[in-house]
Every structure is written in structure tokens, then in C-alpha cells.
Amino acid sequence: MTFDRREAGRGQVPRTRRVAMPFMCWRKLWLGLVLAIAAGLLLSGCSVHETKKPPEARNGTIDLTGWDWAHDPLVPLSGEWRFQWQAEPDIPLNGTETTIRVPGMWGAMQAGDGRTYPDEGAAVYRLTVLHGSLNGTMAIRVPNILTAYELYIDGKKVFGRGQYGRDAAASSPYQTPGVVQFVVKDGRTELELKISNFDHRRGGIRTEFILGTAERIELLETRQSSQELIVIGALIMIGLYHIGLFVLRRKEAGNLFFALLCLFMALRTGVIGEGFIVRWFPSLTWEWGTRLDYIALALSAWFGFAYYQRMYPHEMRRFWVHVSGSVALGLCAVTVAFPPLKFTSWLIYYQAYLMTICIVILAALILAWVRRREGARLALIGVAGVVAAIVNDILFYNGWWLSFDLVPFGLLFLIIMNSFIMALRASRTFEKAEQLSAELKQWNVRLEEKIEERTEELRKSYMTLEEAKTGLERMEASRRQLVSNISHDLRSPITLLQGYLEALRDGVISGEDQRDATIRKMLGKVEGLNGLIHDLFELSVLEAGRVELSLEKITLAKWKDRLQEQFAMDMRDKGMDYSCVLPSAMDGKTQVFVDLRRMDRVFENLLFNAVRYTPKGGEIRVALRKREDSREVEITVEDSGTGLHPDDLPHIFERFYKTDKSRHSSSGGSGLGLAISKEIVELHRGAIGAYNRQEGGGGFRITLPISK
User: Fold this and answer.
1) Would you say 171 and 165 are in contact if contact means Cβ atoms under 8 Å apart?
2) Is there a contact between 29 and 421 (Cβ–Cβ < 8 Å)?
3) What is the Cα 64 distance to its own chain's centre?
4) Sign of the alpha-carbon dihedral angle for 412, 416, 418, 419
5) Contact, 120 vs 215, CB < 8 A?
6) What are the strands of the beta sheet with 577-581, ordered from one edge?
7) What are the beta bridge partners of residue 554?
8) Which end of the chain has fewer CB atoms within 10 angstroms, the N or the C?
9) Per residue in 297-352, pLDDT tens?
10) pTM of the entire predicted model
């Protein structure tokens, strides 16, 4: 953003820029851009003279007789020009002549006579150019001059802008740079420049006149025009591009603000400097061109502030955007309501507004950089470059610094930085999109796996629920059977006890022997009830899984000896032929982990159940062997009795289940022995089953895992 740039032309001669941009890696690309733009700015600001310092005018004369035009075809006409202030329009020139520095504004510096002249008025500049004998056509590039002038060469008017006059009524402002060609006649050329200013805060010559050969001046003009057209074109293209982005995504209001910033700066660049918009639209007056210059300056600052607030909302409050917008609109209203002479005199307020916004933006970007916001460093570099150019133009247009317009370069630098930020963000967005896509694929695969796992879990849960349901139904049936059996098994002995007690009470049993026999029977029934209760308690503990087994390792040979020793005498007393065998000597070395005390209870139930169904003189045989096809041992208890009815086999291990032969309490047994045996075996991770032998008799088979 330039400051009152329309007040003067650039008049600088650019040098060819050759800056190699490093592209070693994307992390260093921004550094290459910074170096490229910085080098371009430095080269653009170099002097037009490349080999030696050009001479300066002294007391209104510049001596170029020794100048090497073939090697240095361009030279600025800077230094002390003769200066004559034109007083009242009805008073002729008084002939008093002094000197004044060119470039310079007569209201901002002292003339040779020590006076400072008012900004409003008219003056005549004169310069004698001593160039020796030259052949051919020479040319002068005339910069923007405030605000109307006439140029005379050797007393002949050759060029002018606006209407020169010695009062406001006779003067008409207009300003664009131009080129004047003339034919050299002898060894000197007299230049006379009449300038009037009644419409602007400053009057005079702000930038240099350039004298040179016609070809080089034409080339200089072309470069200056091309340079400005490139800046205008870049601003318009970037602006339209961001408008397109905003149309596609309305949520990104930052794109709209950046687009307006670029378009308004393109407008301002077009009405100042080379004045292309003024040339393209001849109906656009100098007054409205100046208004557009100041309006674009205020609004561009506001749009830039709004853009960076959208970019970094945590560092800049939106409240200040509204405040700065109100100030910008107020400045625009002042620009429209007052004539140029007034609002150009208040340029300091425009500059203060712009510098305040720049300072706030810089502070916010520094904070964003410290907080490691994305793109904050590049944005800070770009804004710092623009601020440096703005400070340069403030000094330049207030006459405190001899320089040239840097804001177009600074703004182009800012655009490049912002474009790189956008490219960086787009690249990171694509990377994140690719990463998210890959993660989504992985999540999709994992989700399918999870669904399969959940489906399998649900299927297993369903099966578990089905099994639980079946188990609950079985438990309910068992509970009913348990209640029925308990009521049956308890009712008979209790009824007998009641009968015996009534007989004793009524004196029916009076004899001593009868009474003793009755008491013995009653005690037997009570013992049976106690055994039933004990068996029920043990079975409930086993089924609840609250039993801790005291496992110990034992070989089948030692276990065989234990079973033989414990049960052989009882079996012989009951008239049974009892034997405990190992089919193979190798089987005796096989080891198992068992709780011997509880397994003794199992064999006690099985053996005495076999005794119940085997007549005296029958055979009961226990065999222990290792299965050849598995890691298990097999223990069988077989008898030569009546065997088991096929209908009883599926229910033989159910609690309180009794065959028809012993369906009464007097036969002994609670009906829980086999159920208890089954629970004990299963606690050893084994299995038990019943079968009938082909040669007659029944049998029980126990399988247990071999110890590792």
C-alpha cells in the first residue's frame, strides 16, 4: 500500500534481476522466495547509473560533457535547479531567482534563499544541460508532477499535463508520467518547467527527471509500464481467484476479504503511478482519481485486517474488525465529502490509521508464531515486508526520504507469501485427507473384524443363553424332582417314627424287648435322615463349585493297591469275589493328579451300588489302564449282577433317581451317591458313565487326564 503515490511518478530505472531460487526442499522454499523478492526490491531501487556516480546540477546547471553515453545512456537530472516563485497572478515575475533541490516539494524544503514557499501557488524551474556535441534524438522521462505543468525545451513548449495557471481559476490538475523526445542542436539544452498547484496538499517535483537516448528512455518507459501492469494483473487474478474460493465455500470469509484487499489495491495502483485506469477511462477526472486513491487506501487496510482476523481469530478479536471498519468508512466519507485540497491535507490520519492496523496485525502474527499457528511465520514475513514498504512510502511522500514507491513490491511479496501459505495448507490438507483415508480404510477393516468378533460373541452369548435356559429348565425340573423325592424319602421314615412314638405313648409296645427294638429302629431311621441331609449338603457344595480339591500325584499301580486294601475285606464280608487289576505292567507307571479322599467316596458309591445288584458269590472287578489313543486313563468298575435297565441308563446319575427295585427307603441309600460321584469326577476334569456288559452285569467307566 503506497502513501499518496499518485502525487509523483516513480522515475526509477530497474536493473535486470537474476535471482536463483533454491528448490532443494519445500522447507527452504519460503526462504528462497524471501531472498528473491528482497533482491528484486534492492535491484529495483538501485541507481540508474551502474558504473559511476552521475553528476548533479549546481546552481541550475548540470555538466554532462564528459558523460559516456554509449556506456551509460541514462542519467537523472537531479540537483540544484534555478527556481522562481510566481507571486500574485496579476503581478509579473519580479526576476528574483534562487535555487531549489530537485526532486523535492517546494513546501517541504528551503530554497537557496532560505525561504520555504507555500504549497499552493505557481513556480518556474530552469535547468541548463551541458552535454557537448551529441548526434541524434534524446529524450526525457517526465514523472508525475503536482498538479499541472508546462515543459519548455530551448524556449519551445513540448509537453504538459493539466492546465498551468497562476491562480486556482486558471489552473486545472492532471497527472500522468510522459516521455518527451527532442533533437539536440548544439552543446547545451535549456529546460524550463512551469508548475502550478491549487488542488493538492503538496506542489512540486517528487521524483527524478531521467535524460537519455530515445531508445533507452523508451525501453525504460516500457519496463516501468510492464512492471506496474504485472502488479495490477497479479492483484486482479489473485483477487478473482479468492472470490471463486469464497463462492465455492462461503464459510471461508477470509477468502473474500483477501480478494477485496487485492482488488482495491489493484484499483489504487491503477489510478496512481503510470495512471493506467486514468488512461483507460478518459472521463475519470483527476479529482475522482485522487478520491479513489484514498478510498482504496482506507478500505484495503480494513480488508487486510479482517482477513488476518479470520486467519488467526484467537489472536485478534472480531470487535476490532468492526471498530476499524467504522473508522475506514468514516475516512471514505470524508474523502467523498471534501475537496482534494482538504482531504489530502489530512493524509496523516490515513497514515496513522494504516500504521495502527499494521502494528496490531504484526503483534497478532508474532503471538500466532509463538503459539505455533499454521502459516504464522510466513504471514509474519509477508506483513513485515509490506510494513517496511509502507514506512518507506510515508517518509517518501512526506518529503523526509528520497526513495521510490516500494508498496507494489511489498504487496506482491505479501501475495506470494500468502499464496505459499495457501499451497502449504492445501498440501497439508491433502496429506491429512490421504492419512484420514488410510485410517478410514484401516478402521473399516478393523470394523469388519470387530463386527465379526461381535457377531461371534453374540452367537456364543446366544448359545450360552440357550444353554443357560436349558440348564435353568433342567434345574427347575431337578428342583421339582428334589422336592418330590425329599418329601417322599422324608415322609416314610418320619411316618414310621411317628407311628413308633404313638405306639410307645399309647402303651401298645409295653414289653422291655419290644421297646428296645423299637428304639433301635427309630435310631436307624434318624441316622438315615442324617445321611440324607449330609449327602444333600455335599452335593450342593459340589454343584456350586465351592470345593477345593487336595490333589496329589499317584501312579495307577499305587492307586490299585489302595483300592484293593480299602474295599477287599468289605466285599468278601458281603460274599463278593472282588479284584482290582492292571491290564498291563506299563499302565502302573502312569500318573494322575487326584484328591484321594474324595475319589474314595466315588469308588465307595460305585462298589456298594454294584453290591446292591449283584447276588452273593458274584464277581466285582476294578481295572485301571492307560488309553492308547489319548492322554487319559480309564477306570472301570464291573459286576456280574442283573445289570441296568436301558431306560435307566440316561438318568442313573440324576439326584434321587432310583430304579424300581429300590424305590423305597427301607432298601437303604439316598439316591444321591451316583450324582455326588459324577460331580467329584467332573471336578477332576474327568467323565463318568454307566453301561451294561455283553456277558451280563453292569459297569461304570471313569476317565481322568494324565498328569503332565
Assistant:
1) yes
2) no
3) 66
4) positive
5) no
6) 577-581, 619-626, 632-639, 698-705, 687-692
7) 592
8) C
9) 899 999 989 998 998 899 998 899 999 999 999 999 999 999 999 998 898 899 89
10) 0.58
